[in-house]
Write a structure and sequence with these properties.
This protein has 397 residues and is mainly alpha-helical. The protein has 16 helices and 3 strands. The two termini are 54 Å apart.
Length: 397
């Protein structure tokens, strides 16, 4: 909905026929001009615009013409930088934010990837190697903070997808761990989900960066920066997009459709047969995993809907039902807590039947609210099976 909002219309209305807005550079000075090309591109990206939208495609064509020398950005040449190198860096970065298929931008990216690969050849950043590679590539020594210290928006964004795996990890660690410890202090333990292997914790790979940090004083910080311009609150200095804060209703429990309700019931009852099978075969890890993942997930979903009905679907139960105790009646929460078991099979069976009893209670209430029929037959069939396995201690398959 943001793509059709008034801010998007206002930004697009300021675009000039050749694809630019005003001055190209300056992300942080909102009063320098009505809006710079960089500011416009950032905000349109945040609002969901892509290369498939004409305003972005036109801007990319303009930046390509600037890279090729057909056009020139109207900005004053800054003497503190190697201005031409920095201009190419800016233009190529923004082009590659929207498309990886531009030959000129890719040439600039390859140059910087080569420089940074040389700087991290020894797995850690070597400032001398960086400056030497820079000079070999461009024929002059680096000048200006952005070109001497590459840890900034342009180089980091430009070389995405251009580094080998070894260099990518080294750059990621240098950029993030060094920066985090500088600004937040050294944590007791830290996790960087986007830098973890896919076998353990698959990264989303969508451009955002997350750091989970626990400090000596017990303070925990979960920091997320969206690389699709890092974050509105960090960079929208003039506050135009404060209205983009998400609606809390997004996290509220949603009413179930009848099919979702029936499927949830079926999954809960059906998967209990695997739990019973694991107990009968003395396969505790398997039985516990089935019970505490698939079966509990269905049970928790039913508890969410019960809470939603009880609160007119105006509350959130939090991640993994962490607010169940807040919203469930005390007697129901006590029964819910009793669905957790230790490794003793007798206690495990007791927890299972407690879960069945509680699931039946809330499911019937929800069915009544939805004015649909609860499938008592599948529950009766599974309860009969569970009792049989529990009493016999064996299964026939």
């Amino acid at each position: 909905m943001f793509k059709t909002g008034k801010w998007a219309r206002e930004i697009i209305s300021l675009q000039k026929p050749n694809g630019m807005w005003d001055y190209f550079h300056t992300l942080s000075e909102p009063n320098k001009t009505p809006i710079t090309t960089e500011q416009a591109l950032r905000r349109l990206s945040i609002l969901g615009y892509t290369i498939d939208d004409e305003c972005i495609a036109k801007a990319v064509r303009y930046m390509n013409d600037c890279l090729s020398g057909k056009e020139r950005i109207p900005d004053r040449r800054e003497k503190v930088h190697n201005w031409d190198i920095f201009t190419d860096l800016m233009l190529a970065t923004w082009i590659r934010r929207f498309t990886k298929g531009n030959a000129l931008a890719n040439q600039v990216s390859d140059k910087w990837a080569s420089i940074i690969t040389s700087a991290f050849a020894g797995s850690v950043y070597d400032r001398d190697a960086y400056e030497l590679a820079y000079q070999d590539t461009f024929g002059i020594k680096p000048k200006g903070g952005r070109l001497v210290d590459f840890v900034n928006f342009y180089q980091v964004s430009l070389i995405a997808d251009s580094l080998d795996a070894h260099t990518e990890v080294a750059v990621f660690d240098y950029n993030n761990i060094e920066w985090l410890e500088k600004h937040f202090g050294k944590p007791l333990i830290m996790q960087l989900p986007e830098n973890m292997c896919k076998e353990i914790c698959p990264p989303d790979g969508d451009g955002h960066f997350t750091a989970l940090m626990l400090f000596n004083d017990g303070v925990r910080i979960d920091l997320t920066i969206d690389d699709r311009e890092h974050a509105v609150d960090l960079f929208d200095k003039d506050g135009r997009f404060r209205s983009m804060n998400p609606d809390v209703k997004h996290w509220h429990v949603k009413p179930p459709v009848p099919k979702a309700f029936h499927d949830c019931c079926n999954e809960f009852w059906w998967c209990l047969n695997n739990v019973a099978k694991g107990i009968a075969r003395d396969e505790l890890p398997f039985a516990m995993n089935m019970y505490n993942t698939i079966v509990r997930e269905m049970h928790d979903k039913m508890e969410e809907w019960y809470i939603g009905i009880d609160n007119d679907f105006s509350v959130s139960v939090g991640k993994s039902g962490k607010y169940f105790k807040r919203y469930l009646p005390p007697e129901l929460y006590a029964k819910y807590a009793a669905t957790y078991s230790d490794s003793d099979y007798n206690n495990f069976w007791e927890a299972i039947f407690t879960a069945c009893e509680l699931f039946h209670y809330v499911a019937v209430k929800i069915a009544e609210h939805l004015n649909i029929k609860y499938n008592q037959d599948e529950e009766d069939g599974m309860i009969k099976y569970l009792n049989s396995v529990k009493s016999d201690g064996a299964i026939n398959f």
